[in-house]
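--- STAGE predict ---
source: upstream dedup step, 1 unique chain passed
mode: sequence only
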Amino acid sequence: MQFTDAQRTAIGTHDDDLLIVACAGSGKTEVISQRIAGLIGRPGVQPRHIVAFTFTEKAAGELKERVHARIRELHGEVHGLAEMYIGTMHGYALDLLHSHVPEAFKYNVLNDVQTRLIIDKYSTRSGLTTTNAVVNGTSKPLRRWVNSKLYQQVMSILREDDVDLDRLRPDVADGLDKYMRLLSERAYFDYTAILHNAAVLLNDDNEECDESVLSLQRHVKETVKYVVVDEYQDTNPIQEQMIRGLTRYGANLCVVGDDDQTIYQWRGSAVENILTIENRYEDVRRVTLNENFRSSPAIVDLARRIVEEIPLGERLSKAMTAAGHQTFERGDLLALEFPDTDAEAAWLVDRMERLRGVAFQDREGGDPRGLDWSDFAVLFRSVRADAGPLVEELRRRDIPYVIKGLTKLFETPEVQAAVACFRFVAGEADEQDVIDAWLDAGVGLAESDVRAGLPVLTTTMQWDASKPWDSTTLQGVFLDFLEAVGLREERVPQERGELVYYNLGRLSTAIGDFERIHLTSEPQQRFDAFAKWVEYQAPNYYEESDGDNGYAQPNAVVIATVHQAKGMQWPAVFLPALRKNTFPASGRGGLGVFHVVEENLVPGAARYRGTEADERRLFYVAVTRAQKFLALTFAPSKKRTGKKRSGFFNEATQVHTLLTREISPSPDGRLTPAPMRGIPEVVMSFSDLKYLFECPYSFKLRLLYGFDSPLQKELGFGKSLHDVMAEIHKRAIEGDIAASEEAADLVDRHLNLPFANKAAADQLRPAAEIAVRRYLERHGATLHQTRYSEQVVEIHPVPGVTVTGRVDLIKRLDTNETSVVDFKSSERAQAEDLTRDQLHLYVLGYQELTGENADVVEVLNLDKAGRDTREVVDPKVMTSLGKRVTEAADSLRTNRLPRLDNWCSSCAGCDFAGICRTRESD
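--- STAGE serialize ---
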């Protein structure tokens, strides 16, 4: 593999702190991977000494696979790679808290949607409605539903930024206190709390602090020797504090980023971090990767001209150059105007049809192929505001497309039909409304089918207060209705089955988000609230989400926001809706964060509003997603503020390589359209693999489509016992043996039943205490034999496939054998064959971790009437598992995830059997 001089310098710099300024398309992932692989070859450096942060889980999977491949190439088999952390900063921070701070073990994580939902549900206790916005000197209380997104952002800024908290208005300070207290009382972390708590503990200099804090700091001091931070330009102040905490004991720091690609300022990203790092850390070496290997010279030139308009004091000096194999031909770059958005959308699709089949070379020296639908990406500043005409045009021509995220999910006909069911239960729709909605959705149902599902809805409306309140759930009714009407993926006409199920699965995810916060409400209240939320609020809640799993690679046009496109590339990119006040976006009207928090309390406050330079960086990112073809378009919108061209559009027309009149691609040399089929890295957990082994179609419904299981009030009991076991064995490793008399305290610290009412909690708590006391009485004498607790392991059966997980316990037996142990309770019970497979996977992981073989696999059942099992490790099972994992990964990549041939015990216990096949009586 050949590298440029700058790349070689970056790869070989190991001792100095390092700033790698990586222009778009400069091969930074390969450079990072080579550098990490080189570090492993240094004397005394083990995988556990390296921590590498990426911005997304998807990027982490790609980097991890690349790093492991380069390590194998350089060093052969290396044990312990599972202890090298490659992932997001949030993931690492949570791992620190869940590994070293027992009080945090029970905390569950709220995603952004769930966080906003809990703010709205507990609008007073969260501080929302007791906090004021000050507009022109007049105080106005924030409103439930209307201002919860704003309040959520304020709560994040107060904990993530360097805000002078002592100078907050009393109502804002009180709101922050209420919000943090609410999260603590309900044992939740929001995303900000994860980082905030970890950063505070990492930088705590109090020598009298809690032992768990000292343990966490000892772990960092003894293990973290090298820290790598990708996308450093998008870090915020609290993340910088985490980096400081990890490097305070002398760890080497390497940050990688491009200030020109800072696009998350509105979330608090501080471009100042990368601009000033050489002043804040001593002896930082800077290496600039100027060469763009992705885009044609014309695209690189256009992008450079755009971004160089940012004043030099606000960006690092660099000059991106084209170094790849893509060539420029007149007509590749276009900037066109249209009379209206419908004409614009029609041309966009016309252009795609003309480009389809044009020869394109993915890599230098490779065979050309014909462009296909998935080679086209249409990037908007806002999909929700501007993608409508294009979506309608694609639908009209039956051209496949995917919209990243959930923004337009609630406008799809099948989801609107499902929402009609909930509106019916809430008394806001009648039977005919439900029938009409499902028939209009065109999913293959007849009126008689829909009528067969109506009893599910009418029964729900007749909820009996004497029943357990969790016996009627939103999720359960949704799945029961789909079963009653007989919906099947293959029944949907026009080969739309996958898309319909994908959309309904993502609605199921949204139902799960809502119900995780509202399950403890009475059913009628819950259904009424959900019907209103899903119709009026949900689209706004999911505006910035991205529901992609990364495995599916449909041959379809991609519609996305520029933010969602970060880190990706396409042969042809379209940038429509280039209007003044749209891109660049104008300042947001209405209430903003600085109506709640005084602007002078937030350093660099302008970034939260967005500046022209910020919009220019975003446009630069959009342009550099294109490899060869780029089209910029303008059409006036119906809004009064949408009549003028974007300044970026006008600037682009000044570049000589860009045409303002289309030249159609030559018909000569066209090829059969063939989408690029990369081999996606498959990274899954042992739990995911369990579902894949049990039933491939159930895995598809659950993990690819997003269907969620109904919640139960007992959920959390098994995890709580598991957390108790984790503390017991982590303490044992340190020589601190827990006594049976501590059972009550251990349960107090770890029991978390988020969906249980008081009666259920009162019943489950004594059961947990009895189980813990019984375990300590039976096994207390052997706790000192613990070798690992909650140990991360990985297996890599073939390149591109990684299975990750945590082993509950690994211990040395009196017989000098090594035993791999899994804890089970009634809640966590599963088929014995699956348990055997899972334990042998853990054995494979233990081999990769240590290079040693385990001898015995055990299941220790924590229930009174439970049965322990114990077996000698079976080499035949080990051999077959490696092949099965490889086959499962190939099935996932190629979307071959069939139903089981016949109804079986797995079907009988599956929450999704009713949307898979006709249910058989037991």
